Amino acid sequence: MKIYVVSGLGADFKVLERLEFPENCELVFIDWLIPEKNEPFHSYVERMAEKIDVSEPFSLLGYSFGGIMVQEINQLKPAQKVVIMGSIRSDKEKSKFIKTGEITKLPRILPTGMFNDKAANVYSVVRKLFDPKNPRILQYFRVRDPYYLKWSVEKVSEWKFEEIPNVIQILGDKDIVFPIKYSKPDYVIKGGTHLFPATKYKEVSKILKEVFV
């Protein structure tokens, strides 16, 4: 069984590197693409889905914004199983913070320059939201193209989606990005911040071995 994996907004696969899967699973990582200027979201999803071979059974696994992406990909190329970690099943599960961005359109009007490597304020926000006590946090965020980051924040805030049946959701109970109080996850990682796949990898691996049997 191939499992196609999409990591989080701006994150490479380092945040997922310690997770363990059943021996019969083959992981295929789908890297984030840089959006084309004014590219519609559905066109971007189509490009992200190009790597998936539908001639054989497969599953999808997404972390954070990757969880949103794999659910969109599943609409084009249905998977046997869809698992999301630190992510939401529909726009109804957005936090008040994200909904404020949607209503005010603030992410759309923010200058791209705010998302460059020198924008210390962006990374201070990342630290506070994702895991303020984790000294390695910026090691997980390697995709730092300013246009991609601004585009991604826009897409998360604007995302509209009806919940798909049977999507398996794993959330940390200390996650500030996607607070657990707005969702009814299938699995809860106790003490898990938004970075729980890296910090609570043993608990997550146990769940993944149950799910992907």
TrEMBL record:
Hydrolase as UniProt keyword: yes
One GO molecular-function entry: hydrolase activity
Keywords: Hydrolase
Entry protein name: Alpha/beta hydrolase
Source organism: Chryseobacterium endalhagicum
Upper taxonomic lineage: Bacteria, Pseudomonadati, Bacteroidota, Flavobacteriia, Flavobacteriales
